[in-house]
Amino acid sequence: MQSESTADLLRSWALEVGFDRAGIARLEPSSQRQAVLRWLDEGNHAAMAYMNRRTGLRVDPREIFPGARSAVCVALQYSPLSGERTVDGDLWPCVARYARGVDYHDLMKGRLDRLAERVRDVFPECSTRAYVDTGPVLERELATRAGLGAFGKNTMLLNEESGSWLLLGELFLSLELDPDVAIADLCGSCTQCLEACPTGALPEPYRLDANRCISYWTIEHRGAFPQEIRHQMGGWVFGCDLCQEACPWNGTAIEVHHPEMHLPSKRAELDLAGLLRIDRQQYIERFRGSPMKRAKQEGLQRNAAVAMGNSGNRRYVPALLEALQEGSELVRLHVAWALGQIGGDEARAGLEARQGAESESDVRREIEAALSQLENRDEHSAESG
Ligand code: B12
Ligand code: SF4
Ligand code: SF4
């Protein structure tokens, strides 16, 4: 067993390379094994097939590589950021806070690689492996064991200083180290996050049903949104922060200084209509290095169209009508739906004009559905008027 000071040294190096918190976890089988298997069995992972792969490894991190013994778990806080100007406009408040700046995967992986180099300089016999988000790892459980925070009922890892505004990563090591002590429950009898979720995606404490989660649909889902999901999206364009914003621990989080996580000016000027109209070249330039690229250009435009539709605001009609002609098939489909939600003479005339010219049958059906919805709405208002 290494002395306790080795653990101290590793924690201090992790802070030096730019993390806000670091702790040590001993690698042990998951204490939540049954909960994880049930979560998968019940289909709470929706279409994220990767969650159902390498389950053995996920619930037993000792298998990460032969000889793996410990992990240095690290956390980067991303809100509130000191020196950040408030995000305004109709787009950026509808993008999850973690996703407004640089891609944390790249940022944190770079820092973990620097930490790994330092470890190997001093312990040349030590094997290492770094993960940020993408590995078959229960990152929040490891982080609780490393003392970085406790599980919240919204399934987020949170602590008294940062709330849950934390992103997680870990460096697995073949060194045997003294682990940190886990933090006790911070939720007590509170249930504010469960009540704040607008879609019922937190049906009980500590269980998220991705099939109902806005974050899942706006980030992970490819292709068209099922009809019943579109209204549930509200105004969100990428991710969702509602179950975190409701948490009392997040209202009192300390400020941190991470300029990389600020919204850069090259994206700040984009609004919803600008995102819907963005061409390939502009998309590449503006979203270089952004985590929002996970949804791809088409996915972001689909989300923007649905957010416009849910706003019911007629000022979006001109941008939507342009996209009804020029967008991809997926985008046109959601644009037609959005125009049906917003209504008005301009929207109706545009839908009618496009009906005959539209070559894709799915989009044509959506245009027809939007027009008949507008007709029903008019009849209804004529009757009630
Ligand atoms: C798949 C995934 C998603 C999915 C599913 C989310 C989920 N809750 O499982 C979707 C796309 C919906 C998603 C959304 C978000 N995600 Co995500 N996601 C992941 C990913 C890749 C895997 C999570 C996982 O393993 N889920 C399976 C379930 C079973 O695991 P779990 O939620 O950790 O469940 C544990 C607890 O519930 C606990 N438990 C179960 N029962 C009980 C009972 C009691 C009493 C207790 C105490 C505990 C307990 O045990 C389980 C196993 O450890 C991780 C990265 C990683 N590799 O871990 C990031 C990760 C969880 N996501 C993250 C983030 C930031 C988000 C969003 C905030 C993004 C956004 N703003 O839109 C939202 C938050 C939604 C939410 N409330 O969870 C961060 C969370 C950081 C933190 N502070 O917790 C992670 C860790 C990525 C990272 N490296 O930072 N995500
Ligand atoms: S991220 Fe949004 S939709 Fe998902 S559980 Fe939290 S509040 Fe509900
Ligand atoms: S809102 Fe309440 S129940 Fe939910 S995570 Fe925060 S403290 Fe826990």
Summarize this, please?
This protein has helices at about 5-15, 35-40, 55-60, 105-120, 140-145, 190-195, 215-220, 225-230, 240-245, 250, 265-270, 270-275, 280-285, 295-310, 315-325, 330-340, 345-355, 360-385; strands spanning about 20-25, 70-75, 130, 150, 155-160, 165-175. It has about 375 residues and is an alpha+beta fold.
Give the SSE map.
Elements lengths: L3 H13 L4 E6 L6 H9 L13 H5 L10 E8 L26 H19 L5 E4 L7 H7 L4 E2 L5 E2 L7 E8 L18 H5 L17 H7 L6 H6 L9 H4 L2 H4 L13 H4 L3 H6 L2 H7 L9 H16 L5 H10 L2 H14 L2 H11 L5 H24 L1
Antiparallel strand pairs: 1-2, 2-6, 3-6, 4-5
Helix pairs in contact: 14-16, 15-16, 15-17, 16-18, 17-18
The site of one iron/sulfur cluster has 11 residues, from helix 7 and helix 9.
Q: What this model shows, in words?
A:
It is built from 18 helices and six strands. Helices cover 44% and strands 8% of the residues. It has 385 residues and is α+β, with helices and mostly antiparallel strands. The chain has two domains: 1-262, no CATH class; 264-385, Leucine-rich Repeat Variant (Alpha Horseshoe). Strand 4 and strand 5 form a beta hairpin. 42% of the residues are buried. The strands form two sheets. It has a four-stranded antiparallel beta sheet with strand order 1-2-6-3, with helices on both faces. Strands 4-5 form a two-stranded antiparallel sheet. The protein has helices at 4-16, 33-41, 55-59, 104-122, 139-145, 192-196, 214-220, 227-232, 242-245, 248-251, 265-268, 272-277, 280-286, 296-311, 317-326, 329-342, 345-355, 361-384, and strands at residues 21-26, 70-77, 128-131, 150-151, 157-158, 166-173. One iron/sulfur cluster (SF4) is lined by residues 197, 199, 201-202, 208, 213-215, 240, 242-243. One iron/sulfur cluster is lined by residues 197, 199, 201-202, 208, 213-215, 240, 242-243.
